[in-house]
């Protein structure tokens, strides 16, 4: 079994995901522009690379990939295009070239239809929409996860995949999102599927194969 590559390993979801993958018995490689941000995390391979450049070297020996990178709320439209769209597209191309068996894309609520509503982050949702569609058409086995508004609350282990009508209820913790990613990769199922993720009342293992 090959390695699991985490792209976006220094982000808020990525850092919670790394130990979960280790606990699942998976060999983990973490791509980081600044490896010093992962100092103190033992047992993983840290690969230096910049998403705005060529990072194909990180895919060597990997048969599972997680893309949970993001440009961040403090950046402008240029970084949205370069990271959330273009880097994601490059990652899909590298995955296809290296025969990756499972690609988990962390997308966003609303990426299915950026025209719905009047979202202030519409450019970000457009980038996510095109990245998701590119992955779906690539022939790389995929799981696309579209979490609602992310919070830093403790994990509950319970979700719904149906979008709540009340926008105030369209949220999920980063901790639960990380757990779901680890579950999807460990099970090896839920391929070629798209899930929206919100806090709910059902254990996620009962909703996501």
TrEMBL record:
Top-rank taxon, per record: Bacteria
Name this polypeptide is given: NAD(P)-binding domain-containing protein
Native species: Halopseudomonas pachastrellae
Pfam families: NAD_binding_10
NAD(P)-binding domain: residues covered: 8-186
């Amino acid at each position: 079994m090959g390695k699991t590559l985490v792209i976006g390993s220094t982000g808020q979801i990525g850092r919670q995901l790394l130990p979960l993958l280790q606990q699942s018995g998976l060999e983990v490689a973490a791509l980081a522009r600044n490896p010093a941000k992962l100092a103190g995390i033992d047992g993983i391979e840290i690969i230096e690379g910049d998403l705005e450049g060529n990072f194909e070297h990180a895919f060597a020996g990997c048969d599972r990939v997680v893309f949970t990178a993001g440009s961040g709320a403090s950046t402008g439209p240029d970084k949205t295009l370069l990271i959330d769209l273009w880097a994601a597209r490059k990652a899909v191309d590298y995955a296809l070239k290296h025969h990756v068996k499972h690609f988990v894309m962390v997308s966003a609520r609303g990426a299915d239809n950026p025209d719905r509503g009047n979202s202030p982050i519409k450019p970000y949702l457009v980038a996510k929409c095109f990245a998701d569609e590119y992955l779906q058409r690539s022939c790389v086995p995929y799981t696309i996860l579209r979490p609602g508004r992310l919070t830093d609350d403790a994990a509950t282990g319970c979700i719904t995949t149906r979008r709540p009508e009340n926008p105030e209820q369209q949220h999920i913790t980063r901790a639960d999102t990380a757990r779901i990613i680890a579950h999807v990769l460990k099970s090896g199922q839920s391929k070629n599927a798209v899930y929206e993720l919100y806090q709910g009342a059902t254990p996620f293992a009962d909703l996501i194969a």
